[in-house]
# Entry
Amino acid sequence: MRSSKIFVLCAALSAAAWFLPRETMAQEGSVSYQRFYNDLSPYGAWVEYPNYGYVWIPNGIRGFSPYATAGHWVLTDDGWTWYSDYPWGWAAFHYGRWDYDNTYGWFWIPDNEWGPAWVSWRRSPGYYGWAPLRPGISIDVAIGSEYHESNERWVFVRERDFMRPDLGGRYLNRSRNVTIINNSTVIVNTQRDERRNVRYIAGPERGEVQRVTHTTVVPVAIRETAQPGQHLSRGEIGIYRPQVQRSSGSGQTPAPSKVMKLNEVRPSTGKIAATHQEQPRVANPDAGIQSQPVRKSPAPENKAVRQQPRPMNPAITNQSPKPRDMTPPKQRVKAQQVRRPAPPNKIRVQAPRPNPPEQKEKREPNR
# Structure
């Protein structure tokens, strides 16, 4: 009798679970760091980095910058949320922090706190900017006047382009960062997720963005999904954001299945690029993102039209010297005149002048 009551109770609870909202079921679940290690392995390499432990380096993406490449901003009830086009974006842009290595480029350090984006914000007349928060930087430090992130880590965009879905082609050249940062102020707009007990920076105020973009900004809802990933549909963002525990309940310590050595990882290009190269989007050439003007290659020689070629200066060209018959006519005639010797008999044919004293002596007897 007692066993049958327990069976009925379990059946009732199981049936009730089917009628729970999908969002509620997703919110109830929790995972460990093993979820990060497993899901991100196909897209990059896990290495053991000094002072950080296991970090993740994404596979070579040309010109990659976190919160800049392949994504854009969407306003949600949690603030400005980074929507990434990468399948691993649900993890690396909402949990943990990013840091930079001059040899290997950007790498991600996992953490268990979810946020719309772990960045600091700045506002300059005509521009908005943001930079990834490094590990160990608290929100209070990030919004403080004494906190200064490296200039090259900032991304700036014109305020009118802030909400564009093709944001990747609108970034300013990083060579302008020093001037913009010196004329900017920190955006102090924080929010707290009471359910998760997490505090983060929400970004620019909605009213200000509406004023500078001349666009009505309507926040979209976040719908929590049960599977890793994210997708944007009309009026909502579906995103996987479970509660993350540092250790698993089974007693096993989470770890990547494969850990590479740093010297086995393919080095990055080195320094943070001055320009942003969006993959797969094509950058807008009018957005001022090129670091130097493009030099056009010389046009191929048109063999159908025979023209007298211009003289070349051998000091500034790699081509061989021109043949003699290509020398301009005036210079060739002048050279020939210089080389022509004087006629040998010209002086000999000239008759000698008469001697005046001798002519005077011959005329005296005739007087």
In short: The radius of gyration is 39 Å.
